[in-house]
Amino acid sequence: MFSISSALGYLHSRLAAAFPRTPGFCFFDAPFPLNDTFDPLTWLACQNAYPQFYWQQRSGAEEAAALGALIPFSSLPQAQQFLHLHPDDVRIWGLNAFDPDSGALFLPRLEWRRERGRAMLRLYLYSDSSLHDDAQCAADFLATLVGSTPLENVQQPCLEQHHFPEREGWETLINQALLTLSSGELDKVVLARATDYHFAHAVQAASLMAASRRLNHRCFHFMYVFDAQTAFLGSTPERLWRRRGMALRTEALAGTVANHDDDAQAQQLAGWLMNDDKNQRENMLVVEDICQRLQHQTGALEILPPQVLRLRKVQHLRRCIWGDLQTADDALCLQLLQPTAAVAGLPRREAWAFIEHHEPFEREWYAGSAGYLSRGQSEFCVALRSAKISGNTVRLYAGAGIVPGSDAQQEWQEIENKAAGLRSLLL
């Protein structure tokens, strides 16, 4: 672990400078050669500072670990307001809840970041009264950090499990949705199930994250650890948006079929998905909704041809949507895109109201978003295929898009397949 120890030593040496006893903001970057086996997730899990945030981009090209909240933000617009006063490369990390007015985001005290084959460790200082005093706080913070030790084995016997709703309740829920769809009040609604798994011992969030990262490829991996007992994490295939300057990329990921270990059978299932009317219709509803929401805030939108995204347990229908924003406004992107029709339904307001009235649990962070924003760029994934850890209880979430013609038994099987991506790692 030479890289992390030498980088921390360099940052600590920078704190020996004389800092003014006035308000201020600054940061120091330590180069971080990628020449050893340093794993930021494992290192993060060993620290006794919170919050902790881990992120790996879907392609694996970008990865980050953020530790300690120098400045917390309860919403993305609040974070964006802070960033307007600071350099382009300052990043704020965290979550937006399903209700995008609520968030858990923070400027970290310490940030490790890898991108384009290079890595660095960054230490932030900020104070609205005395930068000198915050430098001392930063030195004390660095003194608490420890080296890495191996992660625990995430698997252990499950004592009991409970679905919300159980299968009979799910069928009732789907029938209520189909009745509402037939009345014309809704075109689509996305309904979810939460399942609580109770274990004898506390579940280590980083162990579950590491196991998922190892097996669930072509996914964004994210983990927000609130404290020693509570975390929210997931491995999701879906991007909410990516912004580089004014350039915006988003996507419609809707329509699902099972995957298969045999490539030929998986390809046959993918072919069925590409030609199935129900799934194509479900996907196009999302495409049309995204385009309608963006049309007054972007130039011409480019909709790429449909493709099938093959994951470990399921395959999805995806259409990418590219455009250029009129203004580099992440708060606007969040307002326009979350929740999408792929996680809520259409029309958005009516579908959201149906979910709040009928689903027997609170979504909280599920189907919200996870990622980062900065002045120069931002990226958030949709917080699906996710888990909430509360001590020795793990809650897994999975949802399905309900449109006219949906079948309750088939939709139950779909959410079983989706939940298996994380469930199979625990049991």
Describe, in plain words, how this protein is organized in 3D.
This protein is α+β, with helices and mostly antiparallel strands and 427 residues long. It has a domain at 158-204 and 238-426: 4-Layer Sandwich (Anthranilate synthase), CATH 3.60.120.10. The protein is built from eleven helices and 20 strands. β2 (52-56) and β3 (62-73) form a beta hairpin. The model has no long low-confidence stretch (mean pLDDT 96).
Structural class: alpha+beta
Number of helices: 11
> How large a portion of the residues is in β-strands, by DSSP E?
25-35%
| Major sheet characteristics | 20 strands, antiparallel
State the helical fraction. 25-40%
Regions with little confidence, pLDDT below 50 for 5+ residues? none
Mean pLDDT rating? 96
CATH fold description of the domain at 158-204 and 238-426: Anthranilate synthase
Annotated CATH architecture of the domain at 158-204 and 238-426: 4-Layer Sandwich
CATH class of the domain at 158-204 and 238-426 reads Alpha Beta
Morphology: globular
| Cα-atom radius of gyration | 22 Å
Cofactor: Mg(2+)
Pfam family, one: Chorismate_bind
Domain Chorismate-utilising enzyme C-terminal: 167-418
Family: Belongs to the isochorismate synthase family.
